[in-house]
Specification:
Layout: H1 3-8, H2 12-28, H3 31-38, E1 42-47, E2 50-54, H4 57-66, H5 68-79, E3 83-87, H6 99-102, H7 104-107, H8 126-137, E4 146-149, H9 156-170, E5 176-180, H10 181-193, H11 197-205, E6 209-213, H12 222-237, E7 241-246, H13 258-265, E8 268-271, H14 277-290, H15 298-307, H16 312-329, H17 335-345, H18 358-369, H19 373-377, H20 383-399, H21 404-410, H22 416-432, H23 434-448
Parallel strand pairs: 2-3, 4-7, 4-8, 5-6, 6-7
Antiparallel strand pairs: 1-2
Helix pairs in contact: 2-5, 8-9, 10-11, 14-15, 14-16, 15-17, 16-17, 18-20, 20-22, 21-22, 22-23
């Protein structure tokens, strides 16, 4: 659609709404991020209580996956609009509510872009993919429950959504419900507060397929854990399918109720592992094709694949950074440029893994974020200190063998639930904010350097 047509369709009301949303977005991200990914967006329509936003082909997939929540939050804050849809350049406003975007997919919480077709299979995820596909094709007949676990960024959430999207397309009317543990918890707390627990239970226990993300965060939420336990039993007894994900195996989730751990271990447990080089290349080729990155050749993709090895999310993010950097320079994304961009973020190193201590992590985090270690251990809640403390707690849990209570004690005698909250908060921020991801990964790499290199 020509630019003049798009401009002509923007009503004064739509322009007012979009200006408010843009102002919120500009305040939330860096100028570079706004310029590359958000400035190209244009308002398409206000319809059915939703804001429709056009995204150019070359950024649409990335905006949908990485910035959709941010844009939705900005629309809620700036204009009181609860739903945002990202559409392509030739999308036309519906004459009436469009069932593709207004009903079940959104009621179920699914992202339509996460499908089995978009999932790259490799040795490290073959079992998880096969189990998820079997569950989607035969809900409650193959593996029930299915427990998928692995480090952040390896595709657990993608498989959950793929199951849900498949069932909604081919399941003959079976109902699907997706939620993170955080959403389940907040919904339950609200239901108790407003005396609407019946409606809450009907929403989850009435599903034919229930998909729950990040169940490790159930630990220590006693009332929510009990509610989830009874929800699990009700669905299982009714012959419904349950699929849950976690960043660790059931037996490694500390302070999870034994009866719930037993339920998780009753079905199939599938682990997702980091992709090998060939799989990383396949992932990058698919991402380049989806984002129409025609100027990226095989040698450049290989350079990215060699530098980033542990996470699909980081791998895709690295490719986008290389392309963005090349665009800002007015250059082609070539291997030499990729090495320059990625060496600082993902340096190649063949070293024996460093054994970390909580004290070492605290000192490194304090130095990286410009605070003192004493401030980090005290009750200082200023944003800069709190963020440094949460990153240090996150890395202490990721890089040491210390228990949650032990980590809490080393941070000024804090409760283990504070450590859990910090880990959850930083994990979420890393998923939605590249600056947080870069800061944490940079500190992790700094910690892995030999002591002499840090002087």
């Amino acid at each position: 659609m020509p630019a003049t047509d798009v401009t002509a369709s923007v009503t004064p009301e739509l322009r007012r709404v979009w200006d408010a949303v843009r102002a919120e977005l500009r305040a939330e991200v860096t100028e570079v991020t706004f310029h590359i990914w958000l400035e190209p967006l244009t308002p398409a329509a206000l319809a059915g209580g939703a804001l429709f936003v056009r995204a150019p082909e070359h950024v649409r997939t990335w905006v949908e996956e990485r910035f959709h929540s941010l844009i939705s939050d900005a629309a809620t804050r700036g204009a009181g609009i609860a739903r945002v849809e990202i559409v392509d350049h030739d999308w036309e406003p519906p004459a009436q509510p469009d069932p593709r975007v207004s009903s079940e997919p959104h009621a179920s919480g699914l992202n339509p872009r996460y499908t089995f077709d978009q999932f790259v299979i490799c040795d490290g995820n073959r079992l998880g993919h096969a189990a998820a596909l079997s569950v989607a094709e035969m809900p409650a007949q193959a593996y029930n429950p299915l427990f998928i676990h692995g480090r952040p960024g390896l595709g657990k959430t993608h498989l959950l959504h793929a199951i849900g999207n498949y069932v909604q397309s081919y399941g003959g009317g079976l109902t699907v419900r997706y939620a993170t543990v955080e959403e389940f918890t907040s919904g339950f707390v609200k239901a108790v507060r407003t005396n609407e627990t019946g409606a809450f239970r009907e929403r989850f226990r009435g599903a034919d397929v229930l998909l729950v993300d990040d169940v490790q965060f159930l630990a220590e939420k006693l009332r929510t854990e009990e509610e989830f336990f009874h929800t699990f039993n009700a669905l299982y007894d009714a012959g419904s399918q349950l699929v849950v994900t976690s960043d660790r195996r059931p037996r490694d989730i500390e302070r999870l109720a034994d009866r719930l751990r037993e339920r998780f271990e009753h079905g199939l447990i599938a682990e997702l592992e980091a992709p090998d080089f060939d799989a990383r290349m396949a992932i990058l080729r698919k991402r380049a094709r989806l984002d129409a990155l025609d100027g990226v050749d095989e040698d450049t993709l290989a350079e990215v694949a060699r530098h980033v090895t542990s996470s699909v999310r980081q791998l895709e993010g690295a490719l986008i950074r290389v392309v963005a950097y090349a665009s800002l320079r007015g250059a082609r994304p070539e291997p030499a440029l990729a090495r320059e961009v990625l060496h600082r973020l993902h340096p190649l190193a063949e070293r024996t893994p460093h054994v970390h201590t909580v004290a070492e992590i605290q000192s490194a985090a304090a130095e990286a974020f410009g605070v003192t270690r004493d401030e980090m251990l005290a009750r200082d809640r200023t944003p800069r200190v709190a963020f440094a403390r949460q990153v240090a707690m996150y890395l202490a849990r990721e890089l040491t063998d210390e228990t949650l209570p032990a980590i809490g004690r080393r941070f000024g005698g804090r409760n283990h639930t504070t450590v859990l909250h910090a880990h959850k908060r930083i994990s979420q921020e890393m998923r939605r904010d590249t600056e947080t991801l870069d800061a944490v990964e940079s500190l992790r790499r700094r910690l892995d350097e030999p002591e002499a290199d840090r002087q």
